[in-house]
Amino acid sequence: MQINPALADLLQRRGQQHVLRFWEELDEAGQKRLSEQLEGADLDLIASLFQGNLEQPDWSELARSAAPPPAMRLVDRAQGRGGGLGVTPAAAVERGAAAFAAGEVGVLLVAGGQGSRLGFDHPKGMYPIGPVSKHSLLQVHLEKVRALASKYGANAPVYIMTSPITHDEQAAFIAQHDRFGLAEDDVFFFCQGTMPAVDAKTGGLLMADKDSLFLSPDGHGGCVAALAGSGAIDHMRRRGVKHLFYLQVDNPLVPIGDAELVGYHLLAESELTSMAIAKQDPQDKLGNFGMIDGRMNVIEYSDMPDDVAELREPDGGLRFWAGSIAVHVFGVAFLERMLGERDALPFHVANKKVPYLDEAGSLVTPDEPNALKYERFIFDLLPKAKNPIVVEYAEEEVFAPLKNAPGAPKDTEAYVQRLMLAQHRRWLEAAGVHVADGVDVEISPLYGLDAQGVASRLAPKTTFSHTTFLQPDA
C-alpha cells in the first residue's frame, strides 16, 4: 500500500520522515499498523511540546504563597464534629448513602499499569495480593463494588481504564471470572490514549520496531478524554451516574464507595473531593494539597522547598499536612465541562530511558535517559473545580499501594498484606472477636465491607486460632 500523501507531506514538514525508513520492507499489515499510529499522532502538538511550549509553573515559588486546603480533619470526624466543612460525619454518611441507593455513584478504576517492577509479567491488577485468599487486586476491588450494591440495593457501574498493553489480558481475565459477580452492564472497559516518545536531543519520533512507534500511555489524566471517546460518558448518562469514585488499582485498602466521603462531596457542593492522609514528616514523598490564588493544587514533593514543607502551625502540626493518595470523587458534569476545554489538562514531560530502533534497524537499549515522554495528571483538574475539598483519613485504613519489589522499605507485597491483615484484625477485635497471636484472618469484601459489616456476622467472643479466609457461606 502507499502512504497517505498528506501524511507523508506532514512528516516531511515536521522532520519526521525517518519513520518511513523501513516502509518498503513491511508487509501490508505492518504498513497499515504504522500508518494508523502516525495518523493517530498529533505531530503538531508533539513538535510544540518538544519546542518547550509546556505550561511549567514555578512551583517552588508558588508554594511560598500557598495556603492549606479547605478540609475535614480526622480528629473532627472521629469526634463527630462539623470541622472545617461545617458538615458532621453523620450527615455526610446519610447523604452519601442516599446517593448510592439512588444509583447516582459509579466507580472509576485506573488499571493501566504492568507489574514489571514487581517481577510480575502481567497487568498489575491481576497480582494475587490476598494474604490468605491470593485473590487479585481486581477481584478485591470488584467485590467491594458488588458488596456496595448489596448494601444499598442499587448497582454501581465500574469504569475500568486500561492501557494498550494491559487491555486485552485484563478484559479476558475479568471475563474468565464472570466479572467477579457483577452484571455485564456494570463493567465498562475503556483504554487510555498514548503519546509517542521522542528523542530528547532532536525531537524525532522513536521507533519500537520497523512497523511501530514507541508509544506510552498518556498518564492517568488521559482518562478524561478517553471516557468520552469510549462512550463511557454516554453510558453514565444512560445509567443516571452523576458522581465517580476514582481510585488506582494498586491500592487494595481504598474504601471504595465510602459514603462519608461522597456525602461531604455532595453537601459541600464540590466538583472534586480528594481523600488525603496526614504527612508524618515534611519530606514524605506525597503530593501536597494547597490553595494558590484561591484554587486547589497538588504541589509535588520534589517541587516543595524544604523550608516551606517544614512550616508548622501554632499547634505544632505541619502547615502543609495534606498528602495526596490519588483517591477522588468527581462530578460527572464537571468532567463533561472539562472536555470542552482543549487545554484543561496540561502535558508534563519526563526524561526516560527508551529502547529504540537505529538507522540500521537494530534495537538499541540506552544506559542513560535518551527520550522525552509526555503525560497528563488527573490532579491538574483541581484548580478548575468549584468548591474543591479535602477529607483526611487514617493512612493505615486507606493507603497501601503495591509498587515495589521485595527488599524495599514499604509498598511491597509483604507490606501491603501486613496492612490488610492489620485492618481486618482491628475490625474483628472491634466486634469483640479474639484472633490468636500469629494468626492471619483475611476478610472478603463480600463477607464484610467494613467493621460494622463484620460485626453483624460474628458473635462476640468468637475465637480464631487458625489462619482463615472469611467469605460468605464459608
Quick take:
With 474 residues, the chain is α/β, with parallel strands linked by helices. It has helices at residues 5-13, 28-40, 43-50, 59-63, 74-78, 89-101, 137-152, 167-176, 223-230, 232-239, 259-267, 306-309, 332-339, 395-398, 413-430, 451-455, and strands at residues 71-72, 105-110, 158-162, 187-191, 194-196, 198-199, 207-209, 212-213, 215-217, 243-248, 272-278, 288-292, 295-299, 322-331, 348-352, 356-357, 363-364, 371-375, 389-392, 434-435, 441-443, 463-464, 468-470.
Task: Report on the architecture of this protein.
With 474 residues, the protein is α/β, with parallel strands linked by helices. Helix content is 30%, strand content 19%. It is built from 16 helices and 23 strands. The chain has helices at 5-13, 28-40, 43-50, 59-63, 74-78, 89-101, 137-152, 167-176, 223-230, 232-239, 259-267, 306-309, 332-339, 395-398, 413-430, 451-455, and strands spanning 71-72, 105-110, 158-162, 187-191, 194-196, 198-199, 207-209, 212-213, 215-217, 243-248, 272-278, 288-292, 295-299, 322-331, 348-352, 356-357, 363-364, 371-375, 389-392, 434-435, 441-443, 463-464, 468-470. Strands 1-19-11-14-10-2-3-4 form an eight-stranded mixed sheet, with helices on both faces. Strands 6-18-15 form a three-stranded antiparallel sheet, covered by helices on one side. A two-stranded antiparallel ribbon has the order 5-9. Strand 12 (288-292) and strand 13 form a beta hairpin. Helix 6 packs across helix 11 (259-267). The chain is globular and about 75 Å long. The mean pLDDT is 93.
